[in-house]
Design brief:
The complex is a heterodimer of chains A (193) and B (272). Chain A has 193 residues and is an all-alpha fold. Helices cover 70% and strands 0% of the residues of chain A. Chain A has one domain. Helix content of chain B is 35%, strand content 10%. The chains are: A mainly alpha (193), B alpha+beta (272).
Chain lengths: 193, 272
């Protein structure tokens, strides 16, 4: 139980996918203009990361290992994640219009997101079992949500600030991203195995 | 050699499986969409201005067909309302189009209770002691509305009262949403009289604060033949459903607060 918490905490703050591993930066800068849409995006990422972790872990364990083609993991995972997200989107459109309204436009955006692929590959690299994989997936999504929501909050404030012309828009966002990463760097000392 | 064949089989197998699953799913989970939605969306302007209250033109078309929303809410497609009606098979009457007008011409003239040197934005200024104008209901004149207008219909030189281009204005109301003071209102395009003051202070205080503020003397109320003018919260309100554009209220106002809408806009300057 304790080590599950360690995995979760580690992936949310210490090894945050955006701020420590620099994965999934496109939505981090693209969808962080408003807090509301950033939060929806975060929810979609949690959702997709969890499901993708579970499915890719199963495929790795029950297909790639028995046939000894472990080197195919990257390409198979991309394929599986893309198909999976499409499938989930179809399912949601049919069954839950409410969920579709919240997550709808963000789901296709994260089909080929590197953070999602990163979670899946890390599950394999760290040799997690199924439950650890699920926790790691959820944690990855929560960490992403945390980072993108903080970013959106700052950028909303920034919209009423005087920013020098050459720095307006993305340049200042990159600087903010860097400073956030720097502050999250302070968590690094937490986990000493 | 063997590894290559196995990897090809595994990869193709995964691909085929995923393809088949998606194919089946698209059949099983197919959502029937009404073909009328697409037709109406084509008639709508596609500007996604959200003046109708929906986030996009598609969302509005969908709400017309599925939720029975009123089909004449789009101000840009006002002349095409009957086309939408044809798609739906019902009679639709075009709605009177509206234009935005500012309810305060006194912003730059009202006395200031401090010198504001912060961010030049109405929203930012109004966070700080309700802005530097001593009348807290007045136009701050930094032009947040200018930036909000998707049609480029508002112009502003310096810190002044924004000037609205009646022809460019689609009546979407985005400027009204952007204004932190709520001094921008939407009035019918045919309306003639317009109250150019937003203050809710009593007349005595207004006299001190602003040379062109409404002092709620009530002359306009008495003179209106249609009883369309009323005083609410020390402020003149015109009911445009009753107004017949006779202009009596404009003549009666001793401080020239009720203005002719079209005229001031034409010469592009505040006509006082």
């Amino acid at each position: 139980m304790e080590h599950l918490f360690v995995i979760f905490f580690s992936v949310v703050v210490v090894n945050n996918f955006i701020l420590a591993k620099f994965l999934g930066l496109c939505p981090f800068f693209g969808v962080s203009r408003e807090l509301k849409s950033a939060f929806s995006m975060g929810l979609a990422v949690i959702f997709v990361m969890t499901i993708a972790s579970m499915v890719t872990w199963s495929i790795y364990r029950y297909v790639l290992i028995p046939y000894e083609v472990r080197f195919l993991q990257t390409i198979v995972f991309i394929l599986v994640i893309a198909a999976l997200v499409q499938l989930v989107e179809l399912f949601i459109t049919k069954t839950s219009p409410v969920l579709q309204r919240v997550l709808g436009i963000y789901l296709p955006l994260i089909t080929t997101n590197c953070a999602v692929l990163g979670v899946c590959l890390l599950n394999i690299k760290e040799d997690f079992n199924f439950i650890e994989t699920v926790v790691h997936g959820i944690g990855g999504g929560v960490g992403f949500t945390l980072a993108i929501c903080i970013m959106a909050g700052i950028r909303e404030r920034l919209s009423v600030c005087r920013v020098p012309v050459p720095m307006q828009g993305f340049p200042i966002s990159f600087i903010i991203g860097c400073l956030m990463a720097l502050s999250f760097f302070g968590f690094q000392g937490f986990l000493t195995h | 050699m063997n590894t290559i064949i196995i990897s090809i089989i595994v990869l193709c197998g995964c691909g085929l499986l995923a393809g088949a699953a998606l194919g089946i799913a698209s059949r099983v989970f197919a959502v029937k969409s009404d073909p009328r939605i697409e037709k109406i969306e084509k008639i709508l302007p596609g500007a996604n201005c959200s003046g109708c209250g929906n986030p996009s033109c598609y969302a509005y078309a969908k709400s017309i067909v599925e939720e029975g929303a009123e089909p004449n809410l789009c101000v840009l497609a006002a002349d095409k309302a009957d086309e939408i009606g044809k798609v739906l098979g019902i009679e639709v009457t075009a709605k009177e189009s509206r234009v935005a007008a500012v309810r305060c011409y006194g912003g730059p003239r009202a006395s200031k209770h401090f010198i504001y040197a912060g961010i030049p934005s109405c929203r930012a200024a109004s966070f700080f002691c309700d802005g530097d104008n001593s009348c807290k209901y007045s136009c701050l004149g930094f032009g947040d509305c200018v930036q909000a207008c998707p049609f480029g219909g508002i112009s502003l030189t310096g810190r002044n009262t924004p000037v609205f281009d009646r022809d460019a204005c689609a009546g979407c109301g985005k400027c009204a949403d952007a204004c932190p003071k709520g001094v921008i209102v939407l009035v019918p395009k045919s309306a003639l009289p317009h109250v150019a003051c937003n203050t809710k202070y009593k007349g005595k205080i207004v006299r001190i604060l602003c040379p062109i503020g409404c002092i709620s003397c009530g002359k306009c109320v008495k003179v209106c033949p249609e009883k369309a003018v009323s005083l609410e919260d020390n402020l003149v309100q015109i009911n445009y459903d009753k107004c017949n554009n006779c202009g009596a209220c404009i003549e009666s106002c001793p401080r020239h607060i009720i203005v002719r809408l079209g005229e001031h806009e034409e010469d592009g300057a505040v006509n006082l």
